[in-house]
Amino acid sequence: MQDQSLRSVVSSFFFQMILFLQGASHAGKTTFAKHLARLTGASVMSLDLLKMGLIKSGNTDFSGLTPEDDAAIAERLWPIVREMALVADENGQSLIVEGVSLPFVEAGVLVRKLGEGRAAAFAVVFSEKYIRNHYELICQKASASERRVHQDPPALADLLSDHASIRSDAINNGWTLLEIDTSDAWERKIDRLQDFSAEILKALAA
To answer: What is the pTM of this model?
Structure first.
């Protein structure tokens, strides 16, 4: 389905939703968030940009932290993200929050609090078979959406571990899993939003 035809389906609805989008390293969550925002008109908040801004600005709560301090960053970011999501919900705005700093437990609790039709949580991962069969391609596309200067390609073992961990956390906390397991799965699940319910598309439509 082309962008325009999908937009024509969702653009007649005027709902709002908060969508949390997690994903393992190099899974394409930023690309996905931009694609979904373009189709629905929802705003996107990148936690990677937010954390770097807070670290580089010298914010005292982030003093001494590096971009690799994932757990500490997630703990400090979540209160900010939570309140921004609640304000967006109160104001009837659609918001896509994407990044590895999203805590599965806390975000899952907020989704359940807001309720179905007002919030949802998705995690994007690659299957083990897909990673092993497309490892070089994954490394080549690692900088598709963001410039990752001075970063070495991920080791295969690290990539496998990262995606398996995200998959487990998503399942255990009730997140919807978008698993890329074949070469055409990205088109089916991401470009054509095969795994997105009509209710979610309606709610995200601007």
So the answer is: 0.80
Position 7 scores a pLDDT of 47
Q: Which two tokens stand for residue 37?
A: 């925002």
DSSP code per residue over 45-96: EEHHHHHHHHHHTT-GGGTT--TT-HHHHHHHHHHHHHHHHHHHHHTT--EE
Can you give the pLDDT at residue 6? Answer: 41
Q: From edge to edge, which strands make up the β-sheet containing 176-180? A: 43-46, 95-98, 18-23, 119-126, 176-180
Give 123-152 pLDDT, tens digit per residue: 988 999 999 998 888 887 765 545 554 467
Integer angstrom CA distances of residue 201 from 7, 12, 147, 204: 10, 11, 30, 5
The helix or strand, by DSSP H or E, that contains position 35, with its residue range, turns out to be helix 29-40
Q: How far apart are CA 40 and CA 55, in angstroms?
A: 31
The letter for the amino acid at 187 is E
Backbone angles phi, psi at 4, to 5 degrees: -65, -40
pLDDT at residue 186 is higher than 50: yes
